[in-house]
Every structure is written in structure tokens, then in C-alpha cells.
């Protein structure tokens, strides 16, 4: 047996050995098989793409309008669903307590529950909500809370097809949606146009969910305000006054909470008196603006308290009498005219004298 070298380009690569016609055996070398694409991808990791390219792609995706719309839609659906589920839970608990005691029980939300559940628990409370309203008034965002609560009353109105229901919708629209209104909520123009189109429709019936998207936008803004509220001295005063686990607040605790709102109104009244001392054109303008701000703020706060506690807390001229009497003296006869715009049908009349000057409120 002799070994013969296999000539190149003539041997068969697929056979390990071949036999010639003369009986000689040819040994062939084993050829290297090519690695398929699938085997290569599993055996060797491909080079990762550039990080700069991936970041640029993500930024371009975020800048697309469709992406922002989908994100806001998801937030809208989630926010109201969570709040609605919590309301069902609170209503169920209230019915159980009423069935057990045989009468409605004056149970409020404890601070521990608010810390656990967040804004949705705060919105279902009464006494703690007064402290949160003070914080909103102080940071000039109280319109979000007033709008949210009024829309809830609108949606819970039983006679949804009546003329009264459309009047309620018109009042909410004129107070919170119309541009340059005193309590205008910071909403996207698309949301405002959608509401305006439904309000200007010729049909008499108003869809109960006409303000649903706007209400959710207000809820999201209230979430931001609530997070800031947790780090304020007002929150600490709320915990000290209400306790941490109490679910029933007596008259003293309730009165302390309402006095917090009175403090804000006293500050507004002090601003009216301070600017009324300026006899120039700028002083007249500031006085008019501050009187209007005080007048409307007092009206909506009074309505807020009346809805929660069924009392007319500001139905007394002694609310601001102490501050007015401490500044009274006789030197001028200048009078300030109150703007005619009102948010409520009937309000108590408050008269303040400052340096012989009469301010009607």
C-alpha cells in the first residue's frame, strides 16, 4: 500500500478516504466547514450598537406628538380609575358602619390613611382637606381643587338630562375653562376646544363626562401639589391637630382647621387695607384687584366649607373685625367700589373702615 498525495482541485472534500480502481487508497484531508449565520450568532456576541445612537433614537421618539398623546391618555385613564376605585372602597365602608350603628357615622379619614393612600384619600377627607386647601391657596393653585370637586358634583347629579344639569355645566365652564377667568385651570388648548365644542352644540343634553379629561388633568396637578404639601409646616400642624390614627374629629379640631382658612382671608384683607392707603393711580388699581381677589376667594372658600360641613362659616361680620378696628382712624373720605362680578347668588355683607374710608365687601 502506497500513500499518494491528493492533488488539489481534484479530490472530493466530502469523503474522508477514496479507493482507486487499482486498489490504492487515497487519504484526503478534512476540510473546514463554514459556520452558518445562525451558529455564528449563537457562538459570538454581536457588537452592541452605539449608545449615542440609541439615546438619539429615544429622544426623537419622545419628541413625536403621537408618543406624548399616548402617554397622557394612559395617565388620564389610570388616574381617574384609581380614584374611582378608592371612592367605591370608602363608600362601602361607610355603608357598613351605618348598618352597624343604625345611623350615619361622622367618620373622617385619618392621617395614617392619607400617608398610605396619598391624594385619593385626602380628597375623600373633610378636616384634613382644609389644611390642603390652605396650602393650595398659598401657592395659588386652589382652582384645581375647586374644579375637581365641582366636576364630581356635576357627574353625581341625578337628573342628568334636565336643564339644571346644563346650567351647572355652563357655570363650571365659565368659571374654570374660559380664558382669563378668575379660577381658570391650566389646561391644554385641545382639551378646552373639546369642551367648548360640546358646550356650543345646539342640543340641550350635556354629556356627563364632558369634563372628564379636564378633571384628570387637574388631578395630576393636585398630585404634584400634594407631594409638596407633605414637606410643609402646614402638614406638621395638621398631624399635630388631627392626630395620626383618629377617624373622628371633634368641634375643636374642626374649628382649628377652619381657622387655618380664616388666616388666609385675614391676610388678603390686610392686603386690601395696605393698598387702600396709596392715593395714586397704581394704589387704586391694586386696591380694586385685591378687593376682587378677596371677594371671590371668600365666596369659593365659603362654598367649600358649606358643602363639607353644612355650615355658613363666614355668615358673621366679626370675621375680619379685629383687623379692621386696629387700623381705623379718620383722615380721608376716599371710597373704593367693589366689582359687580359674583360667584354666588347671596353673600354676607362686610364693611371695613380705614382712615375714614369705607370698603364694602
UniProtKB/TrEMBL annotation:
RGS domain location is: 118-239
Region (Disordered) spans which residues? Answer: 1-49, 323-361
Q: What is this protein called?
A: RGS domain-containing protein
SUPFAM superfamilies tied to this protein: Regulator of G-protein signaling, RGS
Q: Which PANTHER family match?
A: DOUBLE HIT, ISOFORM B, REGULATOR OF G PROTEIN SIGNALING
Question: What is the organism field in this record?
Answer: Mucor circinelloides f. lusitanicus
Q: Where is the composition biased (Basic and acidic residues)?
A: 351-361
Q: Where is the composition biased (Low complexity)?
A: 9-22, 323-338
Which Pfam families does the entry link to?
Answer: RGS
Q: Where is the composition biased (Basic residues)?
A: 30-40, 339-350
The protein's matches in InterPro entries, at most eight in alphabetical order, are given as: RGS, RGS_sf, RGS_subdomain_2
CDD domains for this protein: RGS
